[in-house]
Amino acid sequence: MAHFIENIEGQESEEYEVLNKDGSPAGIFKSREDIHRDGDWHRTVHVWVLGQDNTILVQKRSLGKKQFPGLFQLNVAGHVGKGEDTGSACLKELFEELDIKPQQSQLQHLFTINWEYKHDDLSDREIQEVYLLSGDYTDEDLRLKSDEIEHAEFMPLRDVEVLIQEHINELVPQVEEYGKVLTAIKDAIAQKAA
To answer: Mean pLDDT across the stretch 59-70?
Structure first.
């Protein structure tokens, strides 16, 4: 279970582990706001969902989001809280955002990537653990439970490739991740077909 600390306004805020760039613990914990203000490295999870008929989950972020409002996102993502492992963080995010409840054994860890984004007073430095969840999911399985997502649907792989190639400015800027994950998804599809 994640631990909480008080933020400036007196509201509870989840506590996250600050990491060194190599992913090793720095030995301190901070709120999300402090980590993003200070530009500290921290761990996040990104879960790509491969659904029925080799479709991929695509979400449109809410206009109310601080980071990347209204942009398309090709994964379910979230921060790893204090005392939480990455598999548990994946399951938490899938349930919180979409009401999907897979088993942890269904998650396939693909790779880890360091990602940095700076804009105004935000300095986001993430060590992203990227996972693939494969299942017979369809649009009917999705129940948006979060005000963070405006819309979600499964799209054919080819349409997702076109979205990346022709509309990259409409996506959360994670270009390096997109290429690596699409290769892994194509491999997973080929293994299923074999």
So the answer is: 89
User: pTM for the full model?
Assistant: 0.88
Mention the CATH class of domain 4-193. alpha beta
Rounded Cα distance between 3 and 13, Å, is: 9
Distances (CA, A) of 116 to 24, 96, 128, 178, 191: 17, 25, 10, 15, 33
Residue reference for tokens 């479709």:
55
- What burial class does residue 189 get, using C-beta atoms within 10 Å of its C-beta: 0-12 exposed, 13-18 middle, 19+ buried? middle
pLDDT of residue 67: 83
Helical H segments across the chain, by residue range: 32-38, 86-98, 157-166, 175-193
Rounded Cα gap, residues 76 and 94, in angstroms: 7
Instruction: Give the model's confidence band at 183: pLDDT under 50 very low, under 70 low, under 90 confident, else very high.
Output: very high
Specify whether the CB–CB gap between 56 and 74 falls below 8 A: yes
